[in-house]
Design goal:
alpha/beta; two-stranded parallel ribbon; 18 strands; globular; binds ligand PMT
Length: 322
């Protein structure tokens, strides 16, 4: 419990926590402790944050504990830990090999290229305190921006309202609504070699946002909001005669590949990245699994960090020669 708390805080006052802080390798945790310490809200909160940061957790076992109590928190059998470590390491090495290959494929291509990316949600105001939004955290688009700059590209990132730090050397322009995002993209797209539309743009906005906070009216049990269609930003870029190479995303909860292919055609995109979204998938998570689709190719990426997905995606684009 103490080590989890220290890892969460980023402390480095002993050898173990120092090593964990000073590595870029993945870390697996196999915590074991008294059942009440394990179920304590503080410990569970630490575990959640560490998982969100990419730590892999081997859940403790249940049963009799060293202190004599019985419950969840018991150390898993050594063989179970050993097998989990071997599986974890094999998966990591395989992913690392693919990532290294993708990185070297992409490096010479992106050096000096100009890349425009949209990321995050858009918020469509109802009144000064309420809005219509969605669950995009911006992590996918920010990971692409981060990797692309490290590969030598000049990146402009148009970010919806998200709580993420700007990757080093990225030019970031903050927006709130789809109309604001559209305005910026219209101004800057012509300078880009490639446009990646990773933002979850609201399809509709409130026709007439109220100037003052809407009040509850006595006896009024229903309320109707009139919505009007937002411009389709990525489709608009694709229509321009001086358009860059255009990459869209498709976030779907079902028929992912079929719907993505339909969007590829309908929006006249050069490429689309399909991802399944839903609770604990796609949105907000650190991991993702993209299928990269062009008119002639379809490449399935297995689940990995959004950074690894970004490397694979930028390497795939590099092969499209534009
Ligand atoms: O931000 P994260 O939490 O990391 O989550 C990542 C993600 C799931 C948001 C991302 O991987 C993703 O799928 N982004 C696109 C989400 C989306 O809006 O998909 P869509 O299928 O509704 O839209 C299709 C494409 O049209 C997208 O490229 C979108 O940016 C674009 N679009 C949509 C509507 C609109 N008015 N303008 C657009 O440009």
């Amino acid at each position: 419990a103490e080590t989890l708390a220290k890892l969460r805080m980023g402390r480095a006052d002993d050898l173990l926590t120092t090593l964990c802080l000073a590595t870029d390798k993945p870390i697996m945790l196999a915590p074991a402790m008294n059942r009440l310490m394990w179920s304590n809200a503080a410990t569970q909160d630490n575990v959640l944050v560490l998982k969100q940061r990419g730590f892999t957790l081997l859940e403790p076992a249940e049963g009799e504990q060293a202190c004599g109590e019985v419950g969840a928190g018991r150390m898993p059998e050594p063989l179970a830990i050993f097998n989990a470590v071997v599986a974890f390491q094999t998966k990591f090495q395989e992913q690392q090999k693919q990532t290294d290959q993708a990185w070297s494929n992409a490096k010479s291509f992106w050096l000096g290229k100009k890349l425009l990316i949209t990321a995050g949600p858009t918020f469509e105001d109802i009144d000064p305190v309420r809005f219509i939004g969605n669950r995009s955290s911006g992590k996918m688009g920010f990971a692409i921006a981060d990797v692309a700059t490290k590969l030598g590209a000049k990146v402009t990132l148009v970010a919806g309202p998200v709580q993420l730090a700007t990757p080093v050397n990225v030019e970031r322009i903050n927006v709130r609504s789809a109309l604001q995002m559209f305005d910026i993209v219209q101004t800057v797209y012509a300078d880009a070699d490639c446009f990646i539309s990773a933002a979850a743009v609201a399809d509709f906005r409130v026709a007439q946002p109220a100037e003052q906070k809407l009040k509850k009216q006595p006896g009024l049990d229903n309320m109707t909001l009139e919505l009007v269609k937002n411009p389709d930003i990525v489709a608009w870029v694709s229509e321009q005669s001086d358009k860059p190479f255009v990459v869209g995303f498709a976030a779907e909860t079902q028929n992912v590949i079929e719907y993505a292919k339909d969007k590829l055609k309908r929006k006249n995109l050069d490429m689309i990245c399909a991802n399944q979204v839903g609770e604990f998938q796609g949105f907000e998570q650190n991991d993702n699994a993209l299928t990269l689709i062009t008119e002639t190719e379809e490449v399935v990426q297995s689940l990995s960090s959004k950074t690894q997905q970004a490397i694979a995606l930028l390497s795939f684009i590099a092969k499209q020669s534009f």
